[in-house]
Write a structure and sequence with these properties.
With 765 residues, the protein is of the alpha/beta class. It is 37% helix and 18% strand. The chain contains 25 helices and 22 strands. The strands form 5 sheets. A 7-stranded parallel sheet has the order 10-11-9-12-15-8-16, with helices on both faces. A hairpin with a 2-residue loop joins strand 5 and strand 6 (124-136). Helix 11 runs parallel beside helix 12. The chain is globular.
Length: 765
């Protein structure tokens, strides 16, 4: 049987009573399957003898010694035993805290095996963390020069809980392997095991717990890591087949595609298209632009980049395919009463992730997608995580699209009832083409006439259930279809779901794109609009802020604007004497605003922006900032997304080491949106950690969001980057997405082939 099928409680194993069962439960180990999947977190190398004289060159001494004496130090309850030992290379002392019984266990003259960490203290070689085993009551040490040391080999180290020791875990795991290990069948198909040079599952499980040598241990780890990644990819790809009837596009396997090195036509991502008129002709071979798309293209005062054109082409093909399949299904359903069978699955719908660096033009691509759907007769919804971002999208969309016959509306929780009622009525009647807003888009009172496209911006800020809630708003009954295979002619209800386009301005590492988002088709926009200059980034140590302030002053004198971002909103009791830091040591935007406006830049208009500022006031401040009525904006991370001011050329981030890499990259992306050279100043704390130093260096070295995302994955791990640590969406055992990317790619290829073999009728084309 497979390991996952061995659900026998660990209480069935010898030596596991109620107390130990409770201890293992604290580690989430309940069954034999759980136990054998409870892999060691590390290993101790005790394959070689390490003499006392070699203590500086190894983590542990592993030797045979003789006891040459006993000594005591301290008085009363503090009296402690000291065992004096010597091997053939040196003498040492074993400090036996709270272990006076060892005087009798290891008498003078006895031969013992000793393993432990040694250090020099009080001019003597000592160890207080050691293991010792009696070999003989007496004897000559020379007789043991070539003898095997008990406890030698590769020792697994498990995570423990109170009352549980390594030896107890060893014994219980050994009992489980003896009882069930030989009966474990392979989880992976035999042809994959042979092709990839993997071990049988039973051999890999035994070796991971009881390795004979490091070579076989490496083979076992590789097998189990591959199996974990393969299982993950099977689940991801099966999910793709379930919700859209096909596998994600094969180009997801292309390193160049995910890294944005080239566009689909082979041109470098940094190149832009020529005139939009020429671009339109290029696209016509793949279906061309719909009327409203063509009208918008003609109105744009700039050329789309090659990556934007490629993204629009792919999305157009997705949307057109969906409508084509919908038409075929509805036509086939008309013949049901005559005995014919309709399609066995729902129409294909787009499930695409559009990712790109800050300022790459994803929103414009999304608007082209909306126009395609509107020309097909449907409605669209664009959901953003903050009201600031949603309002900006609404303003941008209205400015661009109302001239081409599209009605755009904005909806949020702050809209008054007097405004909301007619808006919702128009939405239900189909008079609104695009609804843009926050969570209000999927509230109970929000009803669409025919929602056919959902765009989710900054998708990582929404949970799976929230995304599903907005999609459900457009889900419609297609047909009760007889697929010709069910018993008694039972009908299978099929639904038409809206197309889903998720956008991320935080570039997603390739390995995460293949796992968390592996059931989606992925499109990358790497190239930036023409005329943009790379942002110059400076690192400034706390205490030298005046250097950054001086550079900002020069830009202000040129008529430019600046952001100052802080990790905290306001002052709290117990702050520092300057009043700029709160009790937790974080700099306050409120206090810093006062300092900037009064002392640092008294000749310029400053404003304060954070999440506690009322929504209407936030909008007014941002509008004034866009119009250069405000030159300096002191803020928290509320400006991380949704703020586009081309005249702002300076971003100063105080205590930058308290932010994550992706967040710093997003904040830096608020500048550099015009044709002028822009600057980012990262002011780091005096007590910056080593991890913080590494993050600052990465940002100093590169403005490439994809490179930064990969480095962020290495530093923080997948759970923290995607927020999946809390949701449980990405739980990894042995696998490491950064280290094991090559295995992940192989596992995905094999999983695709396996899905196609198992579900040939469901996969589609």
């Amino acid at each position: 049987m497979r390991l996952s099928e061995i659900q026998t409680p660990i209480s069935s194993l010898p030596g596991v009573g109620p107390a130990m069962q409770k201890q293992f439960a604290n580690l989430n180990v309940w069954t034999i399957c759980d136990l054998l999947n409870f892999f060691p977190r590390s290993y101790k190398d005790r394959t070689k003898r390490i003499a006392l004289a070699q203590f500086e060159t190894a983590k542990e001494v592993h030797t045979i010694a003789t006891v040459v004496g006993h000594e005591w130090f301290g008085y009363g309850k503090m009296k402690t035993l000291k065992i004096l030992i010597a091997d053939l290379t040196a003498r040492a002392e074993l400090i036996c805290f709270n272990r006076p019984f060892m005087e009798k266990s290891f008498p003078v003259g006895s031969i013992i095996a000793v393993t432990g960490s040694f250090f020099v203290k009080y001019n003597a070689l000592q160890s207080s963390a050691f293991e010792a085993e009696l070999l003989a009551q007496s004897g000559a040490l020379e007789d043991y020069e070539n003898a095997a040391i008990p406890g030698s080999g590769i020792l697994p180290v498990y995570k423990l809980t109170a009352g549980l020791t390594q030896k107890k875990v060893y014994k219980v795991v050994a009992a489980a392997l003896s009882q069930c290990g030989g009966a474990i069948d392979n989880d992976l198909p035999d042809d994959i095991i042979a092709r990839r040079g993997l071990l049988q599952t039973r051999d890999a499980i035994k070796t991971i717990h009881q390795p004979k040598d490091f070579e076989s241990l490496q083979d076992a780890r590789r097998t189990l890591i591959y199996q974990e990644l393969f299982d993950m990819q099977m689940a991801v790809l099966q999910r793709a087949v379930e919700h859209k009837g096909s596998l994600p596009s094969a180009n997801l396997e292309s390193l160049q595609e995910l890294n944005g090195a080239q566009s689909s036509d082979g041109m470098k991502g940094g190149e832009t298209g020529g005139a939009n008129q020429k671009a339109s002709k290029d696209l016509k071979a793949g279906g061309g632009f719909s009327p409203r798309q063509a009208a918008l293209l003609e109105r744009l005062p700039f050329a789309l980049t090659k990556d934007q054109m490629a993204a629009i082409e792919r999305i157009n093909a997705d949307i057109d395919r969906g409508y084509d399949e919908r038409a075929k299904l509805l036509k086939a359903s008309q013949d049901l009463n005559g005995g014919s069978s309709a399609a066995a699955r729902a129409p294909w719908t787009m499930q695409r992730l559009l990712q790109g660096d800050v300022g790459a033009g994803k929103t414009l691509v999304a608007l082209f997608a909306c126009l395609r759907v509107i020309d097909w007769g449907g409605q669209c919804a664009i959901m953003a995580p903050t009201e600031i971002l949603a309002k900006q999208h609404a303003e941008t969309s209205a400015r661009l699209l109302e001239a081409v016959g599209v009605r755009v509306a904005f909806l949020s929780g702050t809209i008054s009832a007097a405004q909301r009622t007619p808006l919702l009525k128009a939405l239900k009647a189909g008079e609104i083409n695009i609804l843009i807003g926050t969570h209000a888009l999927f509230s109970k009172t929000t009803v669409y006439k025919d929602l056919q496209l959902v765009v989710v911006d900054e998708q990582h800020r929404f949970g799976v259930t929230q995304r599903q809630a907005i999609v459900e708003k457009g889900k419609a009954l297609a047909v009760a279809a007889n697929d010709g295979k069910q018993k008694n002619g039972a009908a299978k209800t099929l639904y038409i779901s809206p197309h889903l386009l998720m956008m991320s301005a935080t570039p997603i590492p390739q390995s995460l794109a293949l796992t968390v988002y592996g059931d989606l088709d992925v499109t990358v926009i790497k190239s930036l609009p023409a005329g943009r200059k790379p942002i110059t980034t400076y690192l400034v140590a706390q205490g030298h802020e005046s250097n950054a302030y001086g550079a900002v002053a020069k830009e202000l004198q040129k008529g430019r604007q600046a952001y100052f971002v802080y990790p905290a909103i306001g002052e709290s009791e117990g702050g520092d004497s300057s009043g700029l830091e709160d009790a937790s040591g974080l700099k306050s935007a409120t206090a810093a605003f006062e300092n900037l406006s009064r002392n640092v830049f008294p000749g310029y208009k400053c404003a304060l922006l954070h999440s506690k500022v009322p929504e209407e006031e936030q909008s007014k401040i941002l509008n004034d900032f866009r119009q250069n009525k405000i030159q300096i904006l002191a803020a928290t991370t509320v400006v991380e997304v949704g703020v586009d001011v081309p005249n702002a050329t300076c971003m100063v981030i105080e205590q930058a080491d308290s932010f994550g890499l992706a967040q710093l990259h997003q904040l830096r992306g608020r500048v550099g949106r015009g044709s002028e050279q822009s600057y980012c100043f990262l002011i780091y704390s005096k007590d910056i950690s080593q991890n913080g130093i590494e993050r600052m260096k990465i940002l100093r070295q590169s403005t490439d969001g994809f490179y930064i995302a990969e480095e962020d994955l290495k530093l923080r791990g997948p759970g923290q980057i995607t927020g999946t640590a809390q949701s449980g969406a990405l739980e990894l055992g042995l696998a490491d997405l950064s280290r094991d990317r090559d295995l992940l790619m192989l596992a995905r290829l094999d999983a695709r082939e396996e899905i196609q073999k198992r579900l040939p009728d469901q996969v589609g084309q």
